[in-house]
Design brief:
Elements: H1 5-20, E1 30-35, E2 38-41, E3 58-60, E4 65-67, H2 76-85, E5 96-100, H3 103-109, E6 131-132, H4 140-149, E7 155-158, E8 162-167, H5 170-192, H6 203-212
Parallel strand pairs: 6-7
Antiparallel strand pairs: 1-2, 1-5, 2-3, 3-4, 5-8, 7-8
Helix pairs in contact: 2-4, 3-5
């Protein structure tokens, strides 16, 4: 019996899409999907272009591989910590995580403690999008830093590293990763022309849009 067959296929597909969308290079970044007490997650050190669903390991919530022959991503401590401990602002189930090394967002992570409110679409991720304190990749210290930064938000930057977003479904998590990269790119473009510094939206407006987006789109 193949475990999480649909989830493994989606993880593989979106991992390859990360490359096409310029959110990662090489084997960097990672994606996971959770169903019940099992998680399908990208393997460590395998080029996404050659990845197949059979290459996606399935782990239990304790981190043990229960299906598949490859080792999971070195960032597994972050994924498990988010699934165990993060509470979505609307109490939606957290079923997918996307971690990228997107260049514009990574650049912003070296400049600020939170993502500047250059555009209201920042609210697709959270009322505040913080920068998690730097720690070496794959460590419990980095997982702890990310959990702190995610409080009340569906994503964060990781200082000198990249981004992490989550969602109820992989499409939501991935869309937030792309929106976050776009907002960071807009900020860097505005800042690149020199003074004056770009105008930013007040925190209450980002919170207003964050609340407004709860009713956005089709029911």
């Amino acid at each position: 019996m193949v475990l999480l067959e649909d989830e493994r296929s989606l993880v593989c597909s979106y991992a390859q899409r990360m490359v096409d969308d310029g959110l990662v290079v090489g084997t960097s970044g990672n994606i996971s999907m959770r169903k019940d007490n099992l998680v399908a997650v990208t393997p460590s050190g395998v080029p996404y272009i050659s990845l197949t669903p059979a290459d996606i390991p399935v782990i239990d919530m304790g981190g043990a591989v229960v299906d598949g022959s490859l080792n999971p991503t070195s960032e597994l401590p972050i994924h498990l910590s988010v699934y165990w401990d993060v509470v979505d602002p609307d109490n939606q189930p957290v079923t997918s995580i996307v971690h990228t090394h997107a260049p514009h967002a990574t650049a912003v992570s070296t400049l600020a403690n939170e993502v500047p409110a250059i555009h209201y679409l920042l609210a697709t991720v959270g009322p505040v999008v913080r920068v998690a304190r730097y720690a070496t990749y794959g460590t419990p210290e980095l997982a702890s830093s990310v959990l702190e930064a995610l409080q009340g938000s569906r994503g964060c930057l990781m200082a000198n590293h990249g981004t992490l977003t989550y969602g109820s479904g992989i499409e939501a998590a991935y869309d937030r990763a792309r929106q976050l990269e776009w907002v960071c790119r807009v900020f860097l473009l505005a800042r690149s022309v020199g003074s004056p510094d770009p105008n930013l939206l007040p925190p209450e407006e980002i919170k207003n849009v964050f609340d407004k987006l709860r009713g956005y789109g089709q029911l």
